[in-house]
Amino acid sequence: MATTTDINLKMKELRKQFGGIAFNTGKEWKDLKKFTISTLRDLGMGKKKLEEQIYLEIQTLADAFQSHNEANIFQAIMDLFTAGSDTTSTVLIWVFIYMAKYPDIQDKCRAEIEKITDLNRPVTMQDKRHMTYVAATLLEVQRIAPVATLTAPHASTVDTKLGGYDIPKHTIVLFNIMDAHYDPNYWDKPEEFRPERWIDEDNELKKNEAFMPFSLGPRICAGISLANIETFMAFSNILQRFKLESPDETPMTMEGKQSGIIYVPVTDNIRAIPL
């Protein structure tokens, strides 16, 4: 059995070999450790009341904001608001429009919801793994009508060449999400709205590397998990209680347009009939 001394010696040896956060003894980590311990000690031993600690935190934030002008603060708040509300609501608008346009697909989704819930309780996130067709429908809507048609700006880190074009270092680069979602090399008849394309022979969801409504890589949308939860919960619970249809006999157009950075439907008139 290894002794404590043996373990300490091995840890020291690993630190020498690998370094890294787990074994780092640099000044930054020492300062952070000292700050954390002193803060907790002052609060835990009653040297500072909770109210005093909260006041200090607020004062620290206020001091930090002094270095930003009003325009920057406003833009930061608007970024959070836009990314957290407009995008999800726009996805739901697209979903509802497609359900009104394709009542047969709407009926299939509702049948799956009814099978799982017996229509006697709300849909929960635990139900999602049993609702393959509902999940596939949401994926297909986000493929055919992505809320963002372009990724966030990136920059090339080196001089490079792509598709015969020279791309100098530090060039701003954006990827075309819409083009990827309609690429026939990755999608069979991409112009068709077909949730079945996402379901395999075992009734499980399939993946497609060209699907990127939230972008890809290290800068993928930070709200992807929350957005998927909100979209599934809102869509499935509304469809459980309402039938969605066009308000009149006018043929529904599925055209979209850019509204800032968001791709929105040209027409969003639908009627919800209680079931």
UniProtKB/TrEMBL annotation:
The answer to whether keyword Oxidoreductase applies is yes
Can you tell me which residues the record assigns to a coiled coil? none
Classification via PANTHER family: CYTOCHROME P450 2U1, CYTOCHROME P450 508A4-RELATED
Task: Tell me where on the tree of life, at the top rank, the source sits.
Answer: Eukaryota
Q: Which family does it belong to?
A: Belongs to the cytochrome P450 family.
Q: Which cofactor does it need?
A: heme
Instruction: Indicate what this protein is called per its UniProt record.
Output: Cytochrome P450 2B4-like
- Keywords assigned by UniProt, alphabetized: Heme, Iron, Metal-binding, Monooxygenase, Oxidoreductase
| Alphabetized Pfam families for the sequence | p450 (PF00067)
Task: Spell out the molecular function terms from Gene Ontology.
Answer: heme binding; iron ion binding; monooxygenase activity; oxidoreductase activity, acting on paired donors, with incorporation or reduction of molecular oxygen
Q: Where does heme bind?
A: 221
